[in-house]
Amino acid sequence: MNSKLQWLRNTMASLDMQGLIISNPVNIKYLTGIDAEGTLLLTRKDNIFITDGRYIEHVHSILTLYDEIIVYDINDVSKDDYENFFMFCENVGFEEYYVTYADYKELIRKYKINNLVETEHIIERQRMIKDKDEISNIEKACEITDNCFKYLLTYIKPGMTEKQIAEEIEEYYKQRTDGLAFDTIVLSGENTSMPHGVPSDRKIQEQDIITIDMGCKVNGYCSDMTRTIFVGSVAEYIKPIYDLVLKNQVQTLEEMKDGESTRLLTKMVENDFKLNGYDLIHSLGHGVGMEIHEAPYINYRTDTQLKENMVVTDEPGIYIPGKFGVRIEDTVQITKFGCISLTKSEKNYIII
Amino acid sequence: MNSKLQWLRNTMASLDMQGLIISNPVNIKYLTGIDAEGTLLLTRKDNIFITDGRYIEHVHSILTLYDEIIVYDINDVSKDDYENFFMFCENVGFEEYYVTYADYKELIRKYKINNLVETEHIIERQRMIKDKDEISNIEKACEITDNCFKYLLTYIKPGMTEKQIAEEIEEYYKQRTDGLAFDTIVLSGENTSMPHGVPSDRKIQEQDIITIDMGCKVNGYCSDMTRTIFVGSVAEYIKPIYDLVLKNQVQTLEEMKDGESTRLLTKMVENDFKLNGYDLIHSLGHGVGMEIHEAPYINYRTDTQLKENMVVTDEPGIYIPGKFGVRIEDTVQITKFGCISLTKSEKNYIII
């Protein structure tokens, strides 16, 4: 059995949980390497993956005896099988943040479980702490993102459209990685005031401000970086806001370390923004791994202690509706005494 | 208020439902045109969309007074507001097939609803029947898919990789549509035995069998077509299976009409496959619309009566593990007395 499944089984034992039903495909891939529709059951003795005819061949081609995972075709699982899987289990966990209300009712009916218990992100919390291989994959994705950004600084010219630049980024990633980690954001001029805008046919103009939010996947792991850049020069009315965002982005980096509270970090930035008359309208950051947005979430709604080998983003932004916006974002690895920025592109005024 | 919201309100009235909480973003887009994170509430009197700072500007830019939708920033909604929204409602519906168990508990807590009731796909069932505009968009997506396939027949040459062909399809769609409706499947040789395989670096060879499953989006609506084609000639051992799949695909088309049972259609194909020693290992078809897979699902697990102006696929397939597979699929519109194939590409032996 691999170390991730072993870790999860130890956590289950400590929670007095004798069985677990895993439905989230990202969690299944994390634990087993299997990238297919199906359900992973951890029973008292066995690890069981139930899938269907479309995936059986693929799943068998991935697994080895060492994995200790029994594969079932869903058509061969009888009513009795379902009822026997968790027969001697006191508590069986399910993923209440992934399973729909309708599926929850179906789990109880099908498996005849007495005590189906909420697991409070048991696997997502395990996923927050990255191992060596995971960090190495994220490092590579970040390095390629830095290289792509460097290339963009020579590529972008007035007259090009936002879409065209986004497509060039996609092409760059496609040739070197598993592809995009998320839909690339390229916004210019007044469009930059929309934090989640979509690249349009607007053409880059002289004196434009441009926001680029980009990331790729390497062996299934993501990178995430945003830079706000300028054509020709930086307008005087933008400088104070750029400086304020950058100051807070750097200060957050300086504070991020093992033990630090994510809520406190958010409050620090929020307060400094408010002091200057602006709001922090989105999260300060989020975990990055197999998913582009995963735990921990860095905002004022939740509080998590940062831990060594978490990988998170640091991305404050200020947006003036109808005028412009500035966001600066790095992907960083938390260490015992600070953090390491895995994306390393220039952050002072970048003028092309 | 638009006709889709009006239709939904009429259905609610007939179900004695005074309020409805809509969480599924596809359903929200269908009903309002809004493509943003948030929740749509239908209260006794109002249509309310609650979103956050990232989307407020975008949402306001889409809506007009005629829409009769009130937009709230989630940060401005107080505890009392939540409790007042459904104050005089007897029954409030929620989407039990979309809302997670954790969110379900949160809805009850936040809105203080006495009777939160399951709605059994109330909106998905409305979405099954397409209106004129929706069908026109799907028709366009299907026409472009036919044109793309025609182009592919001249483009594909031995030596090209599966990935390369898939990328050419993506490029073709990108230049003419909103892009892919799903990740294109291009498989060749023994890879065709995996119904949901992913394009690889395998090169097309002389005498190869190739399966292409492709579709694009036009104004948010999908097309879906599969063809199995041959390089040079059709191997004799493949012909009986190709003929059997095609025969069943055409027979299904002939039976599809208003009133027909989806389970019966599936049984018909399944029985003929079994008679010849093969299994039908995936659904015979599925609805197509804003989502590439949506209701109705055509398989033996559920039963739906086909209705005029449903748009569904007809896609039987046979797969011989490790050897080859054949699938043939069209997107079709159900009419009173039959069906119209919206994808029209050749289906007899296609040899390049």
Low-confidence stretches of chain A: none
The largest beta-sheet of chain A arranges its strands as 4-3-2-1-5-6
**Average pLDDT rating of chain A:** 96
Helix proportion range of chain A: 25-40%
Describe the global form of chain A.
Answer: elongated
Explain the overall architecture.
Two copies of one chain form a homodimer. Chain A is an alpha+beta fold and 352 residues long. Chain A has two domains: 3-127, 3-Layer(aba) Sandwich (Creatine Amidinohydrolase, Chain A, domain 1), CATH 3.40.350.10; 132-341, Creatinase/methionine aminopeptidase superfamily (Creatine Amidinohydrolase, Alpha-Beta Complex), CATH 3.90.230. Chain A has ten helices and 18 strands. Chain A has helices spanning 3-14, 25-32, 56-62, 79-85, 101-111, 122-128, 132-155, 162-176, 239-255, 262-275; strands spanning 19-22, 39-42, 47-51, 69-73, 92-94, 116-118, 185-188, 209-214, 217-218, 221-222, 225-230, 285-287, 294-298, 311-314, 317-320, 324-327, 330-334, 339-341. Chain A has a six-stranded mixed sheet with strand order 4-3-2-1-5-6. Chain A has a three-stranded antiparallel sheet with strand order 7-8-11, with helices on one face. Chain A has a three-stranded antiparallel sheet with strand order 14-17-18, covered by helices on one side. In chain A, β2 (39-42) and β3 form a beta hairpin. In chain A, α7 (132-155) crosses α8 (162-176) and α9 packs antiparallel against α10 (262-275). The first copy, chain A, starts with a helix and ends in an 11-residue tail after the last strand. The model of chain A has no long low-confidence stretch (mean pLDDT 96). Chains A and B meet through α5 of A and α5 of B.
